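Readers of this paper often ask what the protein records in our data store actually look like. Such a record has a labelled line for the sequence and another for the backbone structure tokens. The tokens are whole numbers drawn from a learned vocabulary of local backbone shapes. We quote a single record here, exactly as it is kept in our systems:
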Amino acid sequence: MNQKNQNLLFHRENCVRDKLKISYCRSLRPYSNKEYIKRFLWSLAFPFFRYSPRKAFFWRKFLLVIFGAKIGRRVHIYPSVKIYLPWMLEIGNDSSIGEWTLIYNLGKVTIGNRSTISHMSHICAGTHDYNNLELPLKRLPIKIGSQVWVCSNVFVGPNTNIGNDSIVGAGSVVIKDVPENSIVGGNPAVKIKDRWV
């Protein structure tokens, strides 16, 4: 029996007996102890972010930077934005993240200069390995280039890149890379036409 089959047998014995062994699967720890501590501290600080005045962009930037985010000048992040792990976020100058957006940045999320993530979008840099019965966490990066507009209510999946000067239409689902100078839309997002600015 090869190693892959042995691993699969191990997973089946430990996670499946007609049903998943939930207690075993939940005992798996996908983060380091240091990261668990940082997550706890961020949960205590987050209300100061969430309930800050709408125009207090500098204050929210200050909180995020304290927790390890790299944020450029004149960045606008609104108070209803949910940023899961600030230390896994990098944003260039003059960019903005609109209201009610979720930055689920288990993997690193990088946003370039002069880019806009419109309201209610979901930037999802985490998934699970569905080929493994334990469904282990996968923390994959997302890179959004410069002068990009991610329109409202867009889902951007893990391990994707959105090229410079591109637009992702409202309500789209991005599961593959978006080339530079492109306008894409739909579920899954496909190229509609070029964008030249």
